[in-house]
Amino acid sequence: MSFIADKQMLDDLSLLGKFNPGSVFSLFNQVKTRGAEKLLDAMFLHPLSDVEAINNRSAVFRYFNQHPVSFPFDEKQLERMESYMDEGGDGSYIMALWELSRKKVASVLVKDDTYDLTLTGIESSISVLKACEKLLKQLEQEGRDNDQPWVKWSEIVRTITTDDRLKDFSKPARSLMDNVRLHHMLTGVFRSQLKTLLELIYETDLYLAVAGVAKAKGFSYAQALPKDRNILEAKGLRHPGLDKGVANSLSFNAGTNVLFLTGANMAGKSTLMKSTGILIYLAHMGFPVAATEVKFSILDGIYSSVNVPDDLNKGYSHFYAEVLRVKKVAEEVATDKSLFVIFDELFKGTNVKDAYDATLAVTEAFTDFTNCFFIISTHIFEVGHALNNGGSQIAFEFLPTIMNNNVPQYTYQLQKGITTDRQGMIIIENEGILDML
Hints:
The mean pLDDT is 87. This protein has two domains: 141 residues, no CATH class; 218 residues, 3-Layer(aba) Sandwich (Rossmann fold). By secondary structure, it is of the alpha/beta class. It has a seven-stranded mixed sheet, sandwiched between helices. A four-stranded mixed sheet has the order 3-8-4-5. It has a two-stranded antiparallel ribbon with strand order 2-7. α4 crosses α10 and α13 packs parallel to α14. The chain is elongated and about 85 Å long. The chain starts with a strand and ends with a helix. α13 links the parallel β10 and β11.
């Protein structure tokens, strides 16, 4: 079963978007090749749902973090080699001879450029193989060649570059027959291995880039656990886009599956909730996360309700859109899925009395689904007092506000309990809005 991640959640957490500089994708998109960028995009679109697969991918990133190497490949040469490989051949020497001879004649008679393009493909492939040899020597010198991430790549490089039929492939001047032989070897004999080699080079580019981001940002690697462990423990959690973000710790399990979060406007509730959702999503990708230590049981997906839009075409008000979102989550939770759910300011589109009653009822109902974890934030702190009956199913935490000469300041540091902070009017007065009116 694929990991559940709908458009609402992806937008709420700003996970995707190559052209969105604030997206999590853009944060990790430091690759050097288009092939690696396509692979990165595929990973972001398809988080993993298997413990072993997640931990294996995470281990590869950790390896490249601990053993960084330079990426000695030229993107243009890789692209030309890929196009050359895609053109391919039937594997026959006779056909290679006929093809290049025909192209050579056409280049002389009608100035056709296909022969030159073939030579460019050959030269690019040779340059890539030389870069592979350079990287392989670096690995051999450092004694890292037998480490898991490099094994398949190094085997293909050795198979091709040590073949006697290619021993003089790098000589500067080649005849037509030399080119025929090379064309036959590259697009016929070794075509399958070379295409695999390209894929592994793109993977290497991605692993090096992501590991480099993790090292520069001080990210760590989460440990995936079986679903039946039913835990999430995150220490030193922060938003990956904030270099100086304040770190917090969160813990969920079957005994405490709901976090009831209070705090004034601008105290950091939304950022904390988004940070948690992003961490869970990246952890299921096997990617490094913005935390110091994370252990998590694999989940079936994430749902969020942070910026629920109204729908003018369907005639939905903001409140009704919120209701439909809660209904969708309720339907999914009731199917025995293991989900992480984020509700930022439940039912903020309606009056305070209805918001109070609905938030209280929904939060109480969610405590029964102990295989799911919930973060619910609200300004209506009275709901928290009504829920706080001494049980352990709901954890009550808040983000405090410190008043300094009637100016609110925020620590962004979680504290246990329920806050009654309300600084909305103070902020309005400090901005001089009432004086303007």
